[in-house]
Amino acid sequence: xxxxxxxxxxxxxxxxxxxxxxxxxKEVDLILCEDTRVAKKLLAHYQIKxxxxxxxxxxxxxxxxxxxxxxxMGKNLALxxxxxxxxxSDPGGKLVSLVKEKTPQVKITPIPGPSxxxxxxxxxxxxxxxxxxxxxxxxxxxxKKFFEEVANSKYPVIFYExxxxxxxxxxxxxxxxxxxxxxVCRELTKKFESxxxxxxxxxxxxxxxxxxxxxxxxxxxxxx
Length: 224
Ligand code: SAM
Prior knowledge:
This protein is α/β, with parallel strands linked by helices. It contains eight helices and ten strands.
Protein backbone atom coordinates (compact mmCIF):
# COMPACT_ATOMS: atom_id res chain seq x y z
CA UNK A 1 0.00 0.00 0.00
CA UNK A 2 1.51 3.34 -0.98
CA UNK A 3 1.48 6.31 1.33
CA UNK A 4 1.01 10.01 1.70
CA UNK A 5 3.14 11.17 4.64
CA UNK A 6 2.37 14.41 6.47
CA UNK A 7 5.83 15.34 7.66
CA UNK A 8 6.36 17.93 10.39
CA UNK A 9 9.36 20.18 9.73
CA UNK A 10 11.12 22.80 11.90
CA UNK A 11 9.37 26.07 12.83
CA UNK A 12 12.68 27.90 12.57
CA UNK A 13 15.64 25.96 13.88
CA UNK A 14 16.64 23.50 11.15
CA UNK A 15 17.99 21.08 13.76
CA UNK A 16 14.44 20.33 14.89
CA UNK A 17 13.86 17.71 12.17
CA UNK A 18 13.30 14.17 13.41
CA UNK A 19 15.35 11.21 12.19
CA UNK A 20 12.19 9.62 10.87
CA UNK A 21 11.21 12.79 8.99
CA UNK A 22 14.66 12.83 7.40
CA UNK A 23 14.37 9.18 6.38
CA UNK A 24 10.92 9.64 4.85
CA UNK A 25 11.88 12.81 2.98
CA LYS A 26 14.85 10.97 1.47
CA GLU A 27 12.85 7.91 0.48
CA VAL A 28 9.60 9.21 -1.00
CA ASP A 29 9.17 9.69 -4.75
CA LEU A 30 8.13 13.33 -4.45
CA ILE A 31 7.83 16.03 -1.77
CA LEU A 32 4.88 18.41 -1.96
CA CYS A 33 5.70 21.75 -0.36
CA GLU A 34 4.13 25.20 0.10
CA ASP A 35 6.91 27.58 -0.92
CA THR A 36 9.65 25.84 -2.90
CA ARG A 37 12.26 28.41 -1.70
CA VAL A 38 11.55 27.53 1.94
CA ALA A 39 11.59 23.79 1.23
CA LYS A 40 14.86 24.01 -0.74
CA LYS A 41 16.61 25.56 2.26
CA LEU A 42 15.63 22.64 4.51
CA LEU A 43 16.35 19.99 1.88
CA ALA A 44 19.75 21.48 1.02
CA HIS A 45 20.68 21.57 4.72
CA TYR A 46 20.04 17.81 4.97
CA GLN A 47 21.27 16.98 1.45
CA ILE A 48 17.90 15.57 0.48
CA LYS A 49 17.78 15.15 -3.28
CA UNK A 50 14.11 14.11 -3.63
CA UNK A 51 12.18 16.08 -6.29
CA UNK A 52 9.74 18.71 -5.05
CA UNK A 53 6.45 20.10 -6.32
CA UNK A 54 4.64 23.13 -4.96
CA UNK A 55 1.23 22.58 -3.43
CA UNK A 56 -0.49 25.51 -1.70
CA UNK A 57 -3.87 27.07 -1.09
CA UNK A 58 -4.04 28.45 -4.64
CA UNK A 59 -3.07 25.20 -6.39
CA UNK A 60 -5.33 24.58 -9.35
CA UNK A 61 -7.42 21.53 -9.99
CA UNK A 62 -4.98 20.40 -12.73
CA UNK A 63 -2.15 20.22 -10.18
CA UNK A 64 -4.35 18.46 -7.62
CA UNK A 65 -5.43 15.89 -10.22
CA UNK A 66 -1.78 15.31 -11.10
CA UNK A 67 -0.96 14.66 -7.43
CA UNK A 68 -3.90 12.25 -7.15
CA UNK A 69 -2.79 10.46 -10.34
CA UNK A 70 0.69 9.91 -8.84
CA UNK A 71 -0.90 8.36 -5.76
CA UNK A 72 -3.11 6.17 -7.97
CA MET A 73 0.05 4.98 -9.77
CA GLY A 74 1.43 3.79 -6.41
CA LYS A 75 3.92 6.59 -5.74
CA ASN A 76 4.81 7.53 -2.17
CA LEU A 77 4.49 11.25 -1.46
CA ALA A 78 5.38 13.49 1.47
CA LEU A 79 3.64 16.76 2.23
CA UNK A 80 5.50 19.46 4.14
CA UNK A 81 4.43 23.01 4.95
CA UNK A 82 6.60 26.11 5.31
CA UNK A 83 6.90 25.42 9.02
CA UNK A 84 5.65 22.94 11.56
CA UNK A 85 2.97 20.32 11.17
CA UNK A 86 1.13 20.24 7.83
CA UNK A 87 -2.63 20.53 8.13
CA UNK A 88 -2.57 23.01 11.02
CA SER A 89 -3.76 26.36 9.61
CA ASP A 90 -2.32 25.54 6.19
CA PRO A 91 -3.49 23.80 2.98
CA GLY A 92 -2.53 20.29 4.18
CA GLY A 93 -6.00 19.55 5.51
CA LYS A 94 -7.60 20.07 2.12
CA LEU A 95 -5.22 17.61 0.46
CA VAL A 96 -5.82 14.95 3.11
CA SER A 97 -9.56 15.31 2.64
CA LEU A 98 -9.23 14.93 -1.16
CA VAL A 99 -6.89 11.95 -0.91
CA LYS A 100 -9.25 10.25 1.55
CA GLU A 101 -12.13 10.75 -0.84
CA LYS A 102 -10.51 10.16 -4.26
CA THR A 103 -7.79 7.60 -3.48
CA PRO A 104 -9.01 5.75 -0.36
CA GLN A 105 -6.51 2.95 -1.01
CA VAL A 106 -3.63 5.31 -0.08
CA LYS A 107 -2.51 5.21 3.54
CA ILE A 108 -2.22 8.66 5.11
CA THR A 109 0.52 8.67 7.76
CA PRO A 110 1.70 11.41 10.12
CA ILE A 111 5.37 11.98 10.88
CA PRO A 112 4.95 14.10 14.01
CA GLY A 113 7.27 16.87 15.10
CA PRO A 114 7.35 20.61 15.71
CA SER A 115 4.31 22.84 15.71
CA UNK A 116 4.06 26.44 16.83
CA UNK A 117 0.97 25.49 18.87
CA UNK A 118 2.59 22.83 21.03
CA UNK A 119 5.82 24.80 21.40
CA UNK A 120 3.90 27.81 22.75
CA UNK A 121 1.58 25.66 24.89
CA UNK A 122 4.54 23.92 26.50
CA UNK A 123 6.15 27.11 27.80
CA UNK A 124 2.99 29.07 28.61
CA UNK A 125 2.90 28.16 32.29
CA UNK A 126 -0.90 27.95 32.11
CA UNK A 127 -2.68 24.67 32.78
CA UNK A 128 -2.77 23.07 29.33
CA UNK A 129 -4.75 19.96 30.15
CA UNK A 130 -7.40 21.44 27.92
CA UNK A 131 -7.06 24.37 25.54
CA UNK A 132 -8.76 25.98 22.58
CA UNK A 133 -6.89 26.65 19.34
CA UNK A 134 -8.44 29.30 17.09
CA UNK A 135 -5.99 29.64 14.18
CA UNK A 136 -5.65 33.20 12.81
CA UNK A 137 -8.09 35.96 13.84
CA UNK A 138 -10.38 36.94 10.96
CA UNK A 139 -9.15 40.10 9.24
CA UNK A 140 -12.52 41.81 8.78
CA UNK A 141 -15.87 40.17 9.45
CA UNK A 142 -16.44 38.17 12.63
CA UNK A 143 -13.48 39.76 14.44
CA LYS A 144 -15.64 40.79 17.38
CA LYS A 145 -17.01 37.26 17.61
CA PHE A 146 -13.42 35.93 17.61
CA PHE A 147 -12.42 38.22 20.49
CA GLU A 148 -15.54 37.28 22.44
CA GLU A 149 -14.73 33.61 21.98
CA VAL A 150 -11.23 34.22 23.35
CA ALA A 151 -12.60 36.25 26.26
CA ASN A 152 -15.25 33.71 27.24
CA SER A 153 -13.18 30.54 27.04
CA LYS A 154 -12.63 28.92 30.41
CA TYR A 155 -9.63 27.13 28.89
CA PRO A 156 -6.48 28.87 27.65
CA VAL A 157 -6.74 29.98 24.02
CA ILE A 158 -3.94 29.77 21.47
CA PHE A 159 -3.97 31.67 18.21
CA TYR A 160 -1.59 32.83 15.48
CA GLU A 161 -0.94 36.35 14.25
CA UNK A 162 1.34 38.04 11.73
CA UNK A 163 3.81 40.85 12.60
CA UNK A 164 1.69 43.31 10.57
CA UNK A 165 -1.38 42.85 12.76
CA UNK A 166 -0.04 41.77 16.17
CA UNK A 167 -0.33 45.18 17.87
CA UNK A 168 -3.74 45.94 16.35
CA UNK A 169 -5.08 42.52 17.34
CA UNK A 170 -3.73 42.63 20.90
CA UNK A 171 -4.97 46.20 21.37
CA UNK A 172 -8.47 45.24 20.23
CA UNK A 173 -8.38 42.06 22.32
CA UNK A 174 -7.34 44.04 25.42
CA UNK A 175 -10.72 45.76 25.36
CA UNK A 176 -12.38 42.33 25.85
CA UNK A 177 -9.92 40.97 28.42
CA UNK A 178 -8.46 43.89 30.40
CA UNK A 179 -5.86 42.73 32.91
CA UNK A 180 -5.83 39.11 31.66
CA UNK A 181 -2.52 37.21 31.68
CA UNK A 182 -1.15 36.35 28.24
CA UNK A 183 2.01 34.90 26.73
CA VAL A 184 3.18 36.09 23.33
CA CYS A 185 5.82 33.94 21.66
CA ARG A 186 7.82 35.47 18.87
CA GLU A 187 10.22 33.66 16.52
CA LEU A 188 10.21 30.41 18.50
CA THR A 189 13.37 28.31 18.06
CA LYS A 190 15.03 31.12 16.06
CA LYS A 191 17.88 33.49 16.85
CA PHE A 192 15.60 36.29 18.03
CA GLU A 193 13.18 34.11 20.00
CA SER A 194 11.33 36.30 22.54
CA UNK A 195 8.68 35.38 25.07
CA UNK A 196 6.55 38.21 26.47
CA UNK A 197 4.58 37.35 29.61
CA UNK A 198 2.24 39.39 31.75
CA UNK A 199 -1.03 41.28 31.73
CA UNK A 200 -2.15 42.07 28.21
CA UNK A 201 -1.58 45.85 28.51
CA UNK A 202 1.97 45.36 29.79
CA UNK A 203 2.75 42.88 27.03
CA UNK A 204 1.49 45.26 24.33
CA UNK A 205 3.73 47.99 25.74
CA UNK A 206 6.74 45.67 25.81
CA UNK A 207 6.25 44.40 22.25
CA UNK A 208 5.73 47.96 20.94
CA UNK A 209 9.14 48.91 22.33
CA UNK A 210 10.84 46.13 20.34
CA UNK A 211 11.23 45.74 16.61
CA UNK A 212 7.98 44.11 15.49
CA UNK A 213 9.26 41.44 13.16
CA UNK A 214 8.82 37.70 12.82
CA UNK A 215 6.08 35.24 13.58
CA UNK A 216 3.83 35.21 16.61
CA UNK A 217 1.78 32.73 18.64
CA UNK A 218 -0.39 34.06 21.43
CA UNK A 219 -1.59 32.15 24.48
CA UNK A 220 -4.36 33.75 26.55
CA UNK A 221 -5.11 32.40 30.01
CA UNK A 222 -8.62 31.05 30.53
CA UNK A 223 -11.49 33.01 32.06
CA UNK A 224 -11.57 32.45 35.80
N1 SAM B 1 1.46 24.36 10.45
C1 SAM B 1 2.18 25.31 11.27
C2 SAM B 1 2.45 24.73 12.66
O1 SAM B 1 2.23 23.55 12.89
O2 SAM B 1 2.91 25.46 13.51
C3 SAM B 1 1.47 26.62 11.33
C4 SAM B 1 1.18 27.23 9.98
S1 SAM B 1 0.54 28.83 10.05
C5 SAM B 1 0.26 29.10 8.32
C6 SAM B 1 1.93 29.84 10.30
C7 SAM B 1 1.84 30.61 11.61
O3 SAM B 1 2.38 29.81 12.67
C8 SAM B 1 2.68 31.87 11.62
O4 SAM B 1 2.00 32.96 11.02
C9 SAM B 1 2.86 32.10 13.11
O5 SAM B 1 1.70 32.67 13.68
C10 SAM B 1 3.01 30.64 13.59
N2 SAM B 1 4.44 30.28 13.65
C11 SAM B 1 5.12 29.50 12.80
N3 SAM B 1 6.41 29.41 13.16
C12 SAM B 1 6.54 30.16 14.27
C13 SAM B 1 7.64 30.48 15.12
N4 SAM B 1 8.85 30.02 14.88
N5 SAM B 1 7.41 31.29 16.20
C14 SAM B 1 6.19 31.78 16.44
N6 SAM B 1 5.11 31.51 15.65
C15 SAM B 1 5.29 30.73 14.60
